[in-house]
Amino acid sequence: MPTADHIPAPLPAALPAGADATLLIVDDDGPLRNRLSRAMERRGFAVTAVESVREGLAAARGTPPAYAIIDLRLADGSGLDVVGALRDARPDARIVMLTGYGNIATAVAAVKAGAIDYLPKPADADAITAALLDHADALPPPPENPMSADRVRWEHIQRVYEQCDRNVSETARRLRMHRRTLQRILAKHAPRG
Length: 193
Prior knowledge:
The chain is of the alpha/beta class. It has 2 domains: 22-133, Response regulator (Rossmann fold, 3-Layer(aba) Sandwich), CATH 3.40.50.2300; 149-187, Arc Repressor Mutant, subunit A. It is 44% helix and 15% strand. It has 8 helices and 7 strands, in the order βαβαβββαβαβαααα. It has helices spanning 30-42, 53-62, 79-89, 104-113, 125-133, 149-163, 168-175, 179-187; strands at 22-26, 46-50, 67-71, 73-74, 77-78, 94-99, 117-120. The strands form 2 sheets. The chain has a 5-stranded parallel sheet with strand order 2-1-3-6-7, with helices on both faces. Helix 2 packs parallel to helix 3 and helix 6 packs across helix 7. It is elongated, with a radius of gyration of 18 Å. Residues 22-136 form the Response regulatory domain. One of its GO terms (molecular function) is transcription cis-regulatory region binding.
């Protein structure tokens, strides 16, 4: 799989000439944030990269960028807070959410908060650039390596479990699943793919 600093020829999308190229990256994964910053700068963006919700909120409210790449889960809170603040400060901002915890509920929450797209990690710079710059209403191409059905199911169960404050009984009730079945699933490692 290509890395964030992979540079193709030609680029999949280009910044419009004379357009505001300011880009805010909010991600608490330092190496990923640095690689992505360099890759996006090579594509013509003027990058501001921060690692926390607090710094993201300050950047969004101080000088709202035209574009943003925001991680969903940050050490000090949810990236959705930054999306909302940026949407309030600059309604025309194009925002892409990134997450390692992809599921339908968080994708819907990201879009409702104002993100234009939602990409699972690891996302390469080409896919992110295309999402930021693509103004067409067409559906994106299917992913190269989509999650398996077992992995999607596991991710959904994990998300509901987290939303129920790691309460097995409440999670089992909401999933309409026997408690012991749920306990066995939770004890296993995530399926590959």
